[in-house]
Design goal:
By secondary structure, the protein is an alpha+beta fold. It has one domain. It is built from two helices and eight strands; from the N terminus they run E-E-E-E-E-E-E-H-E-H. A five-stranded mixed sheet has the order 1-2-3-4-8. The chain has a three-stranded antiparallel sheet with strand order 5-6-7, with no helix packed on it. It is globular, with a radius of gyration of 16 Å. The chain starts with 7 loop residues before the first strand and ends in a 12-residue tail after the last helix. The model has no long low-confidence stretch (mean pLDDT about 85).
Amino acid sequence: MSDQRRRRTLVVDGTTTYVWTVRHRHGDGQPCREVLTLHRGGKRTHIVFRDGEGRYSGGGGYGHSGGVGDRHHHLNLHEPGVVRAFVDEAAKRELLPMDGELDGWELFTAVALSRAGAATAEVPPDCPQGP
């Protein structure tokens, strides 16, 4: 089995464990899609990202396996921190645990903004404000 299909474990708050995978899918005349699957307590939640106007998913001409994005943001679904952000956002919206499919684009902007905020270094207290 290739690295992109391996099952990985994510532990949230030391008590809740998810097993997750990322896959690129084609078929049935549908656009390409990346699928982040979360397994927990016998339930399987598929967070699906379909190619569309202004949106891309996967290893096509725009990116790599696990890459999803729009005109403003890009996320790598193979990064545990990104997966954790999707779990946190879906849980906050009371969408987890569920057995079924979620539209990943509904969560995407909130996750991308939270990841961007986490990556921004804190400004030292004595630093003057910018322009």
